[in-house]
## 1
Amino acid sequence: MSCTSLRLLAVSSSTYTWNSGQKSVVTYTTTAIERLLDGSVLVTEKGAVTSGFDQGRAAAYQIILPQLDPTACLGAGVGRLAGPEVLTFS
């Protein structure tokens, strides 16, 4: 990952395993990328459960990615970003 671009996928899929052992596969489309006042980035993805538990239901996912320390960008860049996440099914 470059320190000047986020390399986010426009369409992605994730598999979630519930405490019951059932699985849901969700296909998302990135709908918004916003820089927040503190320099962090809010990524919003919306989609649907395409197979498994709750198939056909809508899903929304948001993650806040932290502002990078410029020294972390020296060399090969940053390999992974993590931050608070919210997942909603409706």
## 2
Amino acid sequence: MRLTKKSIILLAFSAILIVLGLWNYADSSPVTLDVIASTVVLVAVGWTLALTVFEPSWTKAAIFMDGLIFLAVGISFLLMPYNLIFILFGIILLAIAVAAYLGKLPLSF
């Protein structure tokens, strides 16, 4: 696979997301549920972004996985007002991924 300028920028951005997520976890003195939630989300989004750079056909699966991660983090780690935002965003990502799998979305805009 030949890396283009766009893919190099996306890989750098995904590396930054993963490093920020791990740094957030390593830097906090009391590890709270908010720290765990932000670490999980940043690492998962960075990993799926890097995955879609190398396998563009897995974009739908990456969106589905990110939706599941946001939904799981919103349900399990976060408290009341913030968890609703994560749950809603996770449901939106899941709906987009399912619609893409069913072929209800246009191929490109």
## 3
Amino acid sequence: MLYNLNLLYDLKFISFYDVCKYLYLLVISVPFLISSQRLLVIFGIVVILSFILADSFYQTTFISVWCFFAAALSSSLWIIFFDWKTHSPELKN
């Protein structure tokens, strides 16, 4: 269903939906936040900020908007790893 030009996935029937949502955020962001690589820590912070943004401003269509943000963030993560591979001497074979 479309709602304000966003897809609406109504999962509010799940009694623990909000708990799962924040548990998901914890699971996907903590590995980046504890990384020794500065760019990955920044990436983890951006993940949290985009999650909060999507949850605050697009609460009704959160899942759809978060999927869009996650896709954009995934492409930036690919760029980070590609950059490491091309500029890191220990990764060159």
## 4
Amino acid sequence: MSFVEKYMAGWKLRTAKPDYEPGETIEVMITSMRDGKAKARIGDSILRIKNVPEDGENTRVMVEIEEWDTEDHIGEGTYLETVGESAF
């Protein structure tokens, strides 16, 4: 094993289009709320979230993934709890 391989062992590059599995719980920032429907953008991916409180825009929340399309990087999830506010 070369010096570079040893140095970089375990490194992973972050992707703009992550993949998730149904049942997985993740933390996201609600980026928009329109007509009671919430969305979170995760890189270039979009997650639609059900059951978000009306004042949920710009909050950090825990979401359980229900469906995830690995081709289009669009999914649906269910709101579990609010864990923080926006830093803006």
